[in-house]
From TrEMBL:
Keywords of this entry: Chromophore, FAD, Flavoprotein, Lyase
Entries under SUPFAM superfamilies matching the protein: Cryptochrome/photolyase FAD-binding domain (SSF48173), Cryptochrome/photolyase, N-terminal domain (SSF52425)
Name by which UniProt lists this protein: Cryptochrome/photolyase family protein
Coiled coil feature spans: none
Pfam (any one): FAD_binding_7
Primary enzyme class: lyase
Highest classification ranks of the organism: Bacteria, Pseudomonadati, Bacteroidota, Sphingobacteriia, Sphingobacteriales
Length: 433
């Protein structure tokens, strides 16, 4: 039996009420809005571990969202399954006039949305998507000839020139248009096949004092002077417009990091082959060694290079790694060990709480020298020199790698030898191409 006439707002990477563009548009549609979230089995089934911090984060964010909605006399409908099938079921339960959501730019998300759109259109239901997780989407910042940028610096320059106040002005939802309804509590993780990790995540906040000094201290891992907001932007528990407004007021360097995020998103959108292929095709000819034993030592933080090992142990224990150390660890895997960047990218994708396909892919290809960065392949970080520059008192290393002075873990490879070997392999791959 059809219950109610509703407009559905489908939460995905936007788990908040405030300054949610798609939600605001749904609430202005004219009908009562039913909030919806789907635990997508196509995504969940691909995860290797049943103890995944990202699922814990999502579940806790949904509980907070449900609490806010219930204060307004509404609720959130939480389902578990394939989105196409979920919408077929909802069409049997509700008289749906329209479905609203915020746009996602990843290839699989685009495919999913197209499939859902087709199902809804079969039933005369309109499907509306809106820009929310970025300031400028992949089609808005382009060269004069209309082609996409493939180098960050000119992209960033154009991004900044294009920015107007209305691009980061925040909106508040008309909560009076939410459907009055009471539904079941957000299910525990066990209901969708996952386990608790013991992590507890706070509602994200913008620490303006930290952001003011971001450029001065961000490279020193022991200080931990980064915002840790990557996960909040990944799952939309914090508005990008709020972040940009604060960055413009307090720190240009942090604004640049937010622009890097959108740069990699538009790269992925325009060049979806980068998911599995080098942006610069000629680098597909690199003869990776892909030594499984050495890769295992890297994964477990036992390379014999204290800074690399500290970073990997921090990642394995917390789901986070300081950005400076990410660069060193990624460079070590791809250059010192000559392990295919795709191996490292997949490991980070499994472990990082703030994993985002576009940024993870873009940064790994940057480290391997095969991406859209203008710098050549012979940028190879020296872990010892990086330690002297950014952790000279070894505070970060001692925290995450306290046994670093033990002789039980000699270096897997000598830096000078590894550097020369990498240069030789890369040169051979690029010869005559």
């Amino acid at each position: 039996m059809i219950e109610k006439s509703v407009v559905i707002f489908w939460f995905r990477r936007d788990l908040r009420l405030d300054d949610n563009r798609g939600l605001c548009r749904a609430l202005s549609h004219g009908g009562k809005v039913l909030p919806l979230f789907i635990f997508d089995t196509d995504i969940l089934d691909a995860l290797n571990s049943r103890k995944d911090r990202r699922l814990v984060y999502i579940q806790q964010a949904l509980v907070r969202l449900q609490t806010e909605l219930r204060k307004q006399g509404s609720d959130i409908c939480v389902r578990h399954g394939v989105p196409e099938m979920i919408f077929r079921e909802l069409l049997k339960t509700y008289c749906i006039s329209a479905v609203y959501c915020n746009e996602d730019y990843e290839p699989e998300a685009i495919r999913r949305d197209n499939d859902v759109r087709e199902i809804l259109e079969e039933h005369g239901v309109t499907f509306h998507t809106y820009k929310d997780q970025v300031i400028f989407d992949a089609r808005e910042v382009r060269k004069a000839d209309g082609s996409p940028y493939s180098v960050y610096t000119p992209y960033s320059r154009q991004w900044r020139a294009k920015l107007k106040k209305e691009d980061y002005t925040m909106e508040e939802p008309d909560v009076g248009q939410l459907l009055s309804i009471h539904l079941d509590p957000v299910p525990p993780l066990s209901a969708v096949g996952f386990l608790e990790t013991g992590d507890r995540f706070d509602q994200p906040t913008l620490d303006e004092r930290l952001i003011k000094d971001y450029d001065r201290f961000r490279d020193f891992p022991a200080l931990d002077h980064t915002t840790h907001l990557g996960v909040a932007l990944r799952f939309g528990t914090l508005s990008i417009r709020r972040c940009v407004a604060v960055a413009l007021q307090h720190n240009e360097t942090w604004l640049g990091e937010l622009i890097w995020r959108e740069f990699f998103m538009q790269i992925l959108f325009h060049y979806p082959a980068v998911v599995n292929r080098c942006f610069k095709e000629k680098y597909e000819h690199v003869s990776w060694r892909n030594n499984e034993s050495e890769f295992y030592h890297w994964c477990t933080g036992n390379t014999g290079y204290p800074l690399v090992d500290a970073g990997m142990r921090q990642l394995n224990q917390t789901g986070f790694m300081h950005n400076r150390v990410r660069m060193v660890a990624a460079s070590f895997l791809t250059k010192h060990l000559l392990v295919d960047w795709r191996w490292g990218e997949a490991y980070f994708a499994e472990k990082l709480l703030d994993y985002e396909l576009a940024s993870n892919n873009g940064n790994w290809q940057w480290a391997a020298g095969c991406g859209c960065d203008a710098a050549p392949y012979f940028r190879i970080f020296n872990p010892q020199e990086q330690t002297k520059k950014f952790d000279k008192d070894l505070h970060y290393i001692k925290r995450w790698n306290p046994d670093f002075e033990s002789l039980s873990c000699p270096p897997l490879v000598d830096h000078v030898y590894a550097r020369e070997r990498a240069l030789k392999v890369y040169r051979a791959a690029l010869a005559d191409r």
